[in-house]
Design brief:
Elements: H1 15-34, H2 43-54, H3 66-79, H4 83-107, H5 114-126, H6 128-132, H7 140-159, H8 164-180, H9 184-205, H10 211-236, H11 246-252, H12 261-275, H13 282-300, H14 303-324, H15 340-357, H16 359-379, H17 382-387, H18 393-402, E1 409-411, H19 413-422, E2 430-432, H20 440-443, E3 448-453, E4 465-473, E5 476-483
Parallel strand pairs: 1-2, 1-3
Antiparallel strand pairs: 3-5, 4-5
Helix pairs in contact: 1-4, 1-5, 3-4, 4-5, 4-7, 5-15, 5-16, 7-8, 7-9, 7-14, 8-10, 9-10, 9-14, 13-14, 13-15, 14-15, 15-16
Length: about 475
């Protein structure tokens, strides 16, 4: 392939079948996400709700990126605060994320081949973490969508590196992303590296090095970087008094890179394994395919393929550097979701390369892996198991429906907040504590009390009450005690 030329579609027959297959995958992906629209809120989502209801976006005091905050605030103003209404925004974003590779294939010719875009869409459609966060009131799906669009625009720019219009569109889009979101700053260095690689390869084919072209990339990079600096110090940088639970910062402490390779190996295995739906040997097959693909791209000096390697892999190194500086945790799956589009692009592009070299063998192996990838999600839902997601609404209904006037409720912090959300009338009676905190001094003259905690959280420190009823849901137990007669 020559520098700057579009990527030819080497399998042009059967275009209609690919269109039908793409629509079918998109429809199935939407159904899988629609089925979770009524998911119960968990305590982390309630921080989002509280911040929305508290008023406008407050600089330095909001853990959400501004774009996501404004989107969910507008949606809640129109639809309300039911479980379904609150999850409409991530649902729409999640479906858009699945459709994006197919849309980019049509809108940005020269960046993706048809089969490659289909594989990319398949992986996004049936990825367990991607599906899970399409039904959660968090910004992770939006950050992933922004990553995918920036990758697509970068490849579009690389495929015609001399186009001023494409370069302006890319850097303008990247600047907007820097102003409104959190994670594009980790993706941007990879995009710039891909553009500089395209400039360098263009220079090797020309009689003179294209300094003007390199200058455009440098100028765009500086302007976009200044946008991030302005946003970070203007409103994104967390304040010490940020309205977010302090224990979260303690939780992230073990996810900062300490220079040990074992840290990278352990946490990469977790997040990559989850992204690959825990399909056995998928990582090995992908690693072999990627190595072959890179070698062949280097030999051919295929600028678009090499750019895919850079934008898919370099953000991981950027994130590791940020983790080493204790600026962003590494390894927690939800916080790595914005890397999913790049990872899946590496798998899709390398799969295409293998299908060119070994058509029958690669097609058979890839089909087996992709079908297993889908089955793993439908049958096991690996990320829901990893996250320990359980619908606790039956437990909250048990407490709310059986609660008697003035009975105190001792609850673990996360359940205390969610129980108070679903049953506001109980909010003033809920306090954070374990069953062992149920002492005569704390209970006073109450005729009864409740505990909401893990089954192994201990027993009340009083013999004045007897257990009246109990319900276990998942790993949480609600217990009702009444004073002895």
């Amino acid at each position: 392939m020559s520098i700057g030329s579009p990527s030819p579609d080497r399998r042009s027959p059967g275009h209609g079948w690919f269109a039908v297959a793409g629509v079918a995958v998109l429809a199935f992906a939407a159904v899988l996400r629609l089925d979770r629209l009524d998911a119960a809120l968990f305590w982390d989502e309630l921080w989002v709700v509280e911040l929305m209801r508290a008023g406008p976006y407050v600089p330095h005091f909001n853990p959400m990126p501004p774009l996501f905050f404004w989107m969910v605030k507008a949606a809640s103003a129109l639809l309300g605060f039911s479980d379904v209404a609150l999850h409409v925004t991530p649902f729409v974003i999640g479906v858009a994320l699945v459709a994006a590779p197919l849309a980019l294939r049509g809108l940005l010719p020269g960046s993706l081949e048809r089969t490659e875009a289909f594989i990319w869409t398949w992986l996004l459609a049936f990825s367990s973490p991607v599906i899970y966060y399409s039904a959660r009131l968090k910004q992770y799906s939006l950050e992933a969508l922004a990553s995918l669009l920036l990758i697509g625009l970068c490849l579009w720019c690389v495929s015609e590196i001399h186009s001023k219009k494409r370069m302006i569109v890319f850097f303008a889009s990247a600047s907007v992303a820097m102003l409104l979101l959190h994670t594009p700053v980790f993706l941007f260095p990879g995009c710039v590296a891909a553009l500089l690689l395209a400039v360098w390869l263009a220079g090797r084919m020309a009689t003179h090095f294209p300094w003007a072209l390199a200058g455009r990339v440098a100028a765009g990079s500086v302007i976009t970087s200044l946008c991030f600096v302005a946003a970070y110090f203007g409103y994104l940088k967390p304040s010490p008094e940020m309205r977010y639970p302090d224990p979260m910062y303690e939780f992230w402490a073990h996810l900062f890179f300490d220079g040990r390779w074992s840290f990278v190996e352990e946490w990469s295995r977790i997040w990559v394994g989850q992204m690959l739906n825990l399909v056995k040997f998928f990582w090995l097959a992908a690693a072999i395919a990627i190595a072959i693909w890179i070698a062949r791209a280097v030999i051919r000096r295929d600028v678009v393929e090499l750019a895919k390697v850079v934008v898919g892999s370099l953000p991981v190194l950027s994130l590791l550097a940020a983790s080493w500086l204790r600026l962003y945790p590494y390894g927690e799956v939800r916080l790595m979701l914005f890397l999913a589009p790049g990872l899946y692009l590496l798998v899709a592009a390398s799969s295409m390369e293998l299908m060119r070299a070994l058509p029958r063998l690669a097609f058979t192996g890839l089909t087996i892996l992709l079908v297993t990838f889908l089955v793993q999600q439908v049958v096991r839902d690996p990320h829901a198991q990893y996250f320990g997601a359980t619908d606790l609404r039956p437990l909250y209904d048990f407490v709310g429906g059986s609660h008697r006037s003035r009975e105190p409720i001792l609850s673990a912090p996360a359940d205390a907040k969610v129980l108070g959300w679903y049953y506001p009338r109980l909010a003033l009676l809920i306090s954070v504590g374990s069953p062992e905190d149920a002492t005569p001094e704390r209970l006073g003259d109450a005729e009864g009390f409740w505990t909401v905690a893990r089954p192994d959280a201990g027993r009340p420190q009083t013999d004045q009450y007897t257990l009246e009823s109990q319900l276990d849901v998942g790993s949480v137990r609600a217990s009702h005690y009444r004073r002895r007669k």
